[in-house]
Write a structure and sequence with these properties.
The protein is mainly β. It contains 1 helix and 29 strands. It is globular and about 45 Å long.
């Protein structure tokens, strides 16, 4: 597959003032939509589950060249266990594959409607999240067996783990964050957002200071909380249409990808109690989820070019969002699927 790398001068991107910039736009093409993106920093692979037809596209994380596709392994997201060399795609069934050969090992039928997915290194388990009960199905990454299920008390979107037996999951329909004991498979606390933000679509975690960053839809806000107590520390504005957040401990920055705004909001953690909006960097409309390559400190996202959104129906409310709540716009332009790389260098 030919990759077209567009420079900023060619595409006319305006760079917002700040340390980060769009380093690369790799137009890799291919048909079908996507949801989550995963950088395997250790294995140097980039996983993007796709639809139409269902498969997971696998790229070299350094060159962004396609190295293969896992056929019939479509879904919303992917997770990788570096120790066992097993990968998982969150469809129904869940697909388990060998990360070296990309061969499918098995499929695992689960309940609910799988959406997000997360590997927890604490006990080598894969968590598959669903907006329908059960909200989480937990798999053993070594053999793909189902360890158990868990009712989180709401519809999960994104989760983070400290790798030491604790996990936090944002509940989009409840405007809450569930704290989870991953050994006991038990919700130990539920944190409210104190009205600072609603519909959390993304969640990031600073492991050093135990800070959570919940990127919310209404209003478009990053709510910052103490992970141990749930106390809201601050709330800062982000762009519209967030569906993902991540934290880079090497730069002490939290990122929110905002599909409707077509940008990424970067929040600087100056201390455990002081935060500021460092930058709003234009990317592409529809770029709503992201992943961190911890080796290069690069943030990766993806989007397709979109035709103009159709006009709203005559009876639509005047304040109805244009182009979809998360920035999808009109129909995808064929062959325009693009991987976006953001970083300071």
């Amino acid at each position: 597959m030919t990759i077209v790398v567009a420079t900023l001068a060619i595409i006319g991107f305006a760079q917002a003032t700040g340390p980060n910039k769009v380093l690369q736009l790799a137009k890799v093409g291919g048909e079908g939509g996507s949801d989550y993106i995963l950088a395997d920093s250790e294995g140097r692979r980039l996983y993007i589950p796709r639809g139409g037809p269902a498969r997971t596209s696998v790229y070299d994380l350094d060159s962004l060249k396609l190295v293969g596709e896992i056929a019939n392994a479509g879904g919303h997201g992917a997770a990788v266990d570096p120790k066992s060399g097993h990968g998982f795609v969150s469809g129904n069934p869940v697909t388990m594959f060998d990360t070296k050969t990309m061969a499918i090992i098995k499929t695992v039928q689960v309940e609910g409607n799988p959406d997000g997915i997360l590997f927890d290194p604490y006990n080598q388990r894969v968590w598959v999240y669903s907006h329908r009960a059960p909200n989480a199905t937990i798999l053993d990454a070594k053999d793909g067996s189902i360890v158990g299920t868990l009712d989180l008390g709401g519809a999960p979107e994104q989760a983070v783990t400290d790798g030491n037996g604790r996990m936090w999951v944002d509940l989009e329909d409840k405007d809450q964050i569930a704290a989870v004991d991953t050994k006991a498979l038990k919700v130990t606390a539920t944190y409210g957002l104190d009205g600072k933000g609603g519909g959390p679509g993304g969640l990031a975690f600073d492991p050093k200071n135990h800070i959570l960053f919940a990127s919310c839809h209404t209003p478009a806000t990053m709510v910052i909380l103490n992970a141990d107590t749930g106390k809201v520390i601050d709330a800062l504005p982000i762009g519209a249409g967030t569906d993902g957040a991540t934290f880079n401990p090497n730069t002490m920055e939290a990122f929110s990808t905002n599909g409707q705004a077509g940008n990424v909001t970067i929040i600087k953690e100056e201390s455990a109690t002081k935060f500021s909006v460092e930058q709003n960097l234009p990317t592409m409309p529809g770029a709503k989820t992201l992943t961190l390559d911890s080796k290069t400190n690069h943030i990766l996202s993806m989007a397709s070019e979109r035709a103009p959104a159709p006009p709203p129906p005559p009876d639509a409310p005047k304040d109805a969002p244009k182009g979809g709540g998360r920035g999808r716009g009109g129909a995808s332009v064929p062959g325009s699927f693009t991987i976006i790389v953001v970083g300071s260098k």
